[in-house]
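Bumping with the actual sequence this time:
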Amino acid sequence: MGREITEYGEVLTFAGYPEFEAAADRAAGKIKEGYMEMGYILKLARDTDILAGSGYRGHEEFGAERYGLDKGTVSRYIRIVERFSVGGNSHVLREHYRNMGFSKLSIMLHMPDAVSEQLMESLSKAEVAAVREEVEAEERISEIELAIERGQETGDPEPEGTTLDRTMLRLGKEQQELYRKLWNVFYSGAGARAGDTLAPQGNAVYMVRIPGTGRMMLAISDRDASVTNIRSRETERYSREELIRAAEGICRTDCGTAEESFRKVYGEEMTASPKGHGESVGQEKDREAGKKKRRDTKVIKARPEESKVQAALPEPGEEKLPGQMELGDYEGVVPEVSFEEVTGSSREEEGERQEAEEPGQAFDGKETGLPWEELERQRNRLDSFFCIFGGRDSWEIPKKDLKEAYQEAIGLAAGLERLLMMGGTDHE
């Protein structure tokens, strides 16, 4: 590659295609990772005194006034550098993230490293977002709810073998069409094709939810596979051969049909695929709108069974479970609080409720916006707490669960106070 001076200035010249291709690759790399240099520059502006005497009061003002970057974008640039660069303080991305791109890395900021490190560069932005949704869905499930699930009969066969075996067993139950395909592959003696059945596009990510354990992420590449426990952040790696053996382990080839095999393995009938079952991100919307189906997704989200947690809780008026306590048994523990102190403008639910009210609506003593749904949710959460921990010594109860129950109790007290403020009746 050379440089030539013309009347228009300096231009690049190339002796042949190899030099041209190398220059194009370098230019593409600079474009692709240019945001990393900007992120590193903004980080320096934040962490050092480099802006002293520049007239800018800080890195956010520098980014906004000079480059038109809002605070959120500036923050994402810096956080990407801190999370994904070599050493956490450079303008060079770690090898695994080299071809992810700014948009996908921005989404991955909301995932634990154990999850993001298993995602492939071939995933689209929508597919990465689908993984994030699964992570957030699992984070909304409390340890108390998980403990209740562990104490319930799920009807699933007892898992044996590795974490991969357990995950594959659940995957077959959740994704029955996939189970049919795998059974057909092994029944026909073409087991070597099982890897292609699980990952037709070379890579795939399956989310399954095991009751009492939580979501498991099975990430399949063209080389190997990994299983990540979303809650514990633990990851185990497996070879392609181990993946195929785990798939074969859930398929009874001594049965004449996939339906019979499924019945033998899971002890229940294989059902017809429900509406939208196994569809990719956006495909269900396309189907409902009568549009052409999009390409198959590489990310299949978990399809958990309906929660059985509420079934373990007594209905109003039922006899208490053994060891279950009432809030009245803890007089003086829950402090006196006002509704405003707990549910002021900072509380999102209350703010949304107030914004939804019709302008100018006056209180007439018959307000219909009663907080029963929230009160019921808080009561059920407290019932769950006492079902699990009622009668135990305080040192046996995880502090996290104690804090959660404490906050629910405060919210319940505040909601009841709100009902009192709304009126009530003096009749006995």
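The tokens above came from a reply further down the thread. Strands lie at 2-6, 9-13, 204-210, 214-220, 224-229, 235-239, 299-300.
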